[in-house]
Every structure is written in structure tokens, then in C-alpha cells.
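User: Need the bound-state model for adenosine-5'-diphosphate:
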Amino acid sequence: MSTASDEDDDPFEEQREEVDNAMVQLFDEYGRNYDFQAVVAIVASVFARVLDLAPPVLLGLAIDSVIQQNKPFLPWLPRSWVPPDDEGKLLLMGGLIAGSFLLGAGFHWIRNWGWNSFSQNIQHQVRTDTYDKMQRLNMDFFATKQTGEMMSILSNDVNRLERFLNDGLNSAFRLSVMVVAIGVYLFYVNWQLAILTMLPVPIIALFTYRFVKAIQPKYADVRSSVGHLNSRLENNLGGIQVIKTSNTESYESERVDDVSQGYFDANWGAITIRIKFFPALRIISGVGFVLTFVFGGLWVIGGAPAFFSGTLREGEFVTFILLSQQFIWPMAQFGQIINMYQRARASSERIFGLMNEPSRIEENPEADELVVDDGEVVYDDVSFGYGDEETIVEDIDFRVDGGDTLALVGPTGAGKSTVLKLLLRMYDVDEGEVRIDGQDISQTTLPSLRQHIGYVSQDTFLFYGTVEENITYGTFDADRDEVVDAAKAAEAHEFIQNLPDGYDTEVGERGVKLSGGQRQRIDIARAILKDPEILVLDEATSDVDTETEMLIQRSLDRLTEDRTTFSIAHRLSTIKDADQIVVLEDGEIVERGTHDDLIGEEGLYANLWGVQAGEIDELPDEFVERAARRQATVDADSEDDD
Ligand code: ADP
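Assistant: Bound-state model below.
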């Protein structure tokens, strides 16, 4: 039975293919840690299920040995324990039945504890390990996978494992113990009638197997049509303003109608198969039941019917009838167990595929701690490409003295962010070296490197939590006074004080919504508190109004004082005073110098400056043509991304 259709469009296909025997790996790496729970669960399962069978067996024995008196009363019991009269014997049987119920309940409790503890512990450990691994993955892994897809591994896939480990294994044991124990007992009592009674077992197994095979692709259709429906609804609700202003309500209603109909059809396809399954199963088991009833009944009344020989007592007949009903329904779960197993295997493949994903940044085990003194940064002939084919930045060569500011300027896609990602070691260089105070950063530990670098970007991210928690993020031991000082330096103190609970105001999606400029100043306060020697400002003042920009600029000036600073800014006025400006085009340095030097050169920088000063008419034609060409390739790139 293939799960190919089940896992259509799996974004983790590549990872899954790398994994052999994911279930073996699961039990080997995680199951072993909880073998005590597993053993307890298995042993208790066997006892619990066997005790489940005791009442019908004891009932049969009671009928034959106490009521009909044609069979010895519990021959294995010491004779001195056997009560002399029939009432006493019946009460003893009743006591045994009651005991089996009580003891059975105890074993069921232990069995449930064992399986649940086994599966919950594994689930917890797999989830936290997967999350830890995800945090260590390269940034480009996140660029190619959507957040929702990563989330689905951490939630759906891990939950599926738990479902299989708990319900799946539990049912599998129940099924095996039931079939084996009932089979053994029935064969022991009367092997000929047992064959007749057990006849439906292989037929039911085959039937449910085929049912699962038929219904699996239908369920895959249902899942994919739910996906389509949800995407359409989400897209439409997000774009409701455009729908209204374009007057396209009826068009959109029709589109929703279409995808909803698709979901209906897919579901109906699954339902038509599913609703036939249980009635058909009933018929098969009913045939077995009727055969046992008719032949067994005839046998009890008038002795062995055709093909049979020997005797069948009333009590044995009752036991047959009762037990035969007990394994039919567990058998119906047979297909379900296979299904759960296959889904769990696909989930394990995704999980282990992710865990085995190689990291592009390998920590050298002998790496030293980075020691920063002046904060001098040198790029020594650095080249780098994201993939194997294309070099994105080439021969990048510059030196920034401790405390100085270097600004990176250039058109979109020139490679400015890429150059700075190499400093933060989001990626390692392909050629050349990046050195901080003379130390090659690829030979230093990642935590020590990142501890000395502050990063302020244009898309500020705030975590759920209070303003204070967001400012102290990464500098967890700071006290309130230090936080307030940092916020003051970041020009954030005033607006924070005006928030409903000041520094204790909850922010983020579930709290107060802050404006872009406010979020950025919180981010800057975070960087000031961290007090790093080296600072990276990635277009730190875009998308804000002029007044806010001025506030941010003032706080940034305070932040960058005495720190080695790298700055990427589209608004050239913000980097005009940088000690060094490096102009990038197509991944290469084309100009460098101070603002005045570069204006004098009348090259790319001077033209970009001209654009921002509003001197569009005075730009050389060649510059405008190049810009248009570049824009065309950027647009094409972003369309490719879609
Ligand atoms: P800038 O910051 O100057 O706008 P970037 O450094 O962001 O430029 O991008 C330089 C080039 O590298 C662009 O062509 C971009 O498409 C490419 N690029 C950026 N990030 C990635 C990535 N994670 N994987 C592959 N290519 C990338």
C-alpha cells in the first residue's frame, strides 16, 4: 500500500528520500529511552486482554459444570477448595468473574499508563529535538520553506507519531492478543467448531486491507481540497477591500462555490466508500456468527452434524458465541492500524529528514572564542554564492577601523545584505576571509561572534511579551534602570511611558500594536542594551515618515558612537557622514571613498545622490537605462520566486 498519494506535493520530499527506515530510527533513538514504559505497557496489555476473555469462558464453565453438571468443576482447583453444594460453586464462579473484572480494570489502567507515558515522552522529546535542529538550520532553508510547512512538522507530524505510538500500538496488541488467545482457547475446547468460527478472520483482514487501500487516495483528495478551500477563503478575506472596490463579489462567490464544491465532491467520494465498509463487515461477521450458531446449536441438540465428530456442551457453545463476537470488531481496526503506521512512517521520514539535514555552517570543534578589542573589521578578497553555480559577491575587500562607520550603497540586488550576512556568519564565505581584530571569524565560535555584533533591521520583530521583555531580549539580566536608560538613548522612553502599562505593556499580535517607527526604536533600545562592539544596521530607517526618521536617526547616532558600524541605507542622507562609503554593483565594489570623494567622481554614487536630491532630469541616459534594465531583472526574479 503506497502513501504516494497521501503525501502529494510534500515540500519535504527531498528530505524524506534521504531517510531509510524512519520507524526503526524512531524506536532506536527515542523508544530505547522509554523501554521501561514499553515493557510495562506490553505485559499489562497481554494480561488485560486475557482477563477480558475470562467472563465468557467462566460463564461457559459454570453452565456445564454447575448447571448441566456434565463436566468436572474447575479440575485444576485443589479439591479442598471446591464448595460441596451447587450454590457455593455458582458463588465461587461469580467471585472469579468479579475478580477478573477487577484485576482486568487494574491492568487496563497500567496498560494505559504505559502506552501514554511511552508516546507522550517520545512526542515531547522528538518535538523539542526537532525545534532545536530547526533553529540551527541555515537561513536559506527557511527561505525555501514556508513557515506553515515547518509548523506542520512540529505539530501535525509529531502528533501523528504520538497517535500511532499510543492508539496504533495499543490496538495492534489488543488485536494480536485477542485473536491468538481466543483462537487458542476455542481450538482447545473444540477445534472443529473453532475452524468454522475463525473462518471470517482472514476474510475480514483482507477486506479491511482493501478498504484502506481504496479509501486512502480519497482521503488525500479531501485533504488537498481542504487546502484549496482554505487558501481561497484566506486570500479572499485578506483581499476583501479589493473585492469590494473592484465590484467582484459575485465573481468571488462563484470561485468559492467552485472550491467548496470540489471539497464536497472529494468528501462524498470518501463517504460513499466509508459507509459501505461497516455494513459489509457486519455481513461477513454475521455469516460467521450464524454458521457457529446453526452448527453449534444443532450439535448441542442432536450430536455432531455432518463433517463433525465428538461432543459440544451447552456452556462451550455459549462461550463460542460470546467469544466469536469479541474479535470481529478489533479486526475491523486492522486497516486503521496499517493506515496509522503508514502515516507515522511518512511523518518520521519528514522529521528525521529534517534532523539529518546538513548544516552549511559547521562549527570547528577547536574554534576559539572571539575576543574583540578595537572592533576592526577586515574583508579580505571575499567571494560568496548561495548556490553552487552563481557567485553573488566577488572580491570584496575593505577595512574598517574600530569605531568607524562603513556604509554600503548600491541598487537593489547588488549584494549589500549578502555582504553583511557573511559578517554575522549566516553563511560562510566561499573564498577569502572576514577578520575581526585579526581573528578569522570562521575559526571562532558562533555564540562568541554574535555576542559582539548588534543587528538592527528594517523589519523589526517583536516577540509576544512586554515592552521590557522585548528590550531585554538577549540581555536577560538587565534591570529596569538599565532598560530605561537604553530606551531613553533610543528616543523610545516617552512613547513607552504613554502606553497603558508603560514598560509592562504587552506588545505583538495579542497586545498593543506599535507603529513601525516605535518598533524600530524598541529594536534600537535592545541593541543599545546589548552594547556590542560592532553594529549592523540594515536599512534601519526605511518606511517611516520624516519626523520619525529624525527621531530614529538621533537614537542611531547615539548607538553608533564609538562602535564599528556597518550601515545599509537607501536614503543616502543618513549615511552621508560615514567614514567610508563602499558602492556595490552586481556583487562587486565599483566605487569607494567619503561622500565628498564620491560626489566628485560623478559615478554611480553621484547619480544615486542626484536621484534623491530630485535632479532626475540631469541624470546621464546611461544611468537611467541601466536602472531600468536592473529593475527588469529584479522583477523577473521575484516572479520566479512565486
Ligand atoms: P541587496 O541587499 O543589495 O538588495 P542582496 O544581498 O539581498 O542584495 O541580494 C543579492 C543577490 O543575491 C540577489 O540577486 C538576490 O536575489 C540573491 N539572494 C539573496 N538572498 C538569497 C538566498 N537566500 N538564496 C539565493 N539567492 C539570494
